[in-house]
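Lecture notes, part 5. Sequence design as translation. It can be helpful to think of inverse folding as translation between two languages: the language of shapes and the language of residues. The source text, in structure tokens, appears below.
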């Protein structure tokens, strides 16, 4: 969709982090993507969904450096900084959905 290399690199990095979270913390899930065309402005939207345990404390999970595992605590917050739009919906015991958008 016409993204420059630096934009693609940011998107791929965010996707890698979110895919890893979906597998490691969500027990697996799905990812859907769509090409966006907003009156000539092109972009990609990706949605990651799992039916895992959800995130019990969303505010804490979106704090730089906090981790529920053995990582560096930059997955969600890092992914959020690498995209133009970031939305996270979670219900403890039911799962998590993260939607990201990066515009070209």
């Amino acid at each position: 969709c016409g993204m420059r290399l630096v934009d693609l690199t940011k998107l791929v990095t965010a996707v890698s982090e979110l895919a890893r979270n979906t597998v490691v913390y969500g027990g697996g899930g799905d990812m859907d993507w769509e090409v966006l065309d907003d009156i000539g402005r092109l972009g990609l939207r990706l949605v990651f969904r799992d039916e895992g345990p959800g995130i019990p404390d969303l505010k804490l999970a979106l704090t730089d450096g906090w981790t529920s595992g053995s990582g560096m605590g930059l997955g969600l917050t890092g992914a959020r900084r690498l995209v133009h739009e970031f939305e996270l919906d979670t219900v403890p015991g039911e799962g998590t959905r993260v939607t990201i958008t990066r515009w070209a």
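The translated text above is only one of many valid answers, since several sequences can fold into similar shapes. The chain has one domain: 5-103.
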